[in-house]
Amino acid sequence: FSSSESASNLKALFDFVRTSLTPAGTDSWKGPVLLVDDLSVLLSLGVTPVAVLDFIHYCRVAVCSQLKGNIVVLVHSNEDSEDEENELVVNSLCHHSDLILWVEGLATGFCKDVHGQIKIIRRVSLELTAEQDHVQIYQYKIQDKNVTFFARGLSAAVL
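Now predict its structure.
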């Protein structure tokens, strides 16, 4: 971690994460998962993008490499956003991710039967190769206790 005050606070958070996920004694974790609900909050608290990315890097090493687990991170992004720090974090996370779930509203605006779309991007390789990422796009409708997913153009309103 770098030597700023926000970085030292994130080091304490990382130490807590590592301690919490490390199995004690005879306990055995089978692929722990670290869920970070909203990484953007750290930026709004004044933590620098470099410190946030350092934190995620250390978590990735501890959880993915050492404990053979996974990390799931939520970040908010907006194409029209002028928040360069947030976009730096979003772009870096996308660059280092195996799987990206990009959820957004409809480009055409509000619709009663379709609330938005989810783009699932499976990174074929994190190396620079000629292989294309595998992209799937589905639309969705949020209901009272359920979410319905369907291929674009196949909502109940169209059929």
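The radius of gyration is 19 Å.
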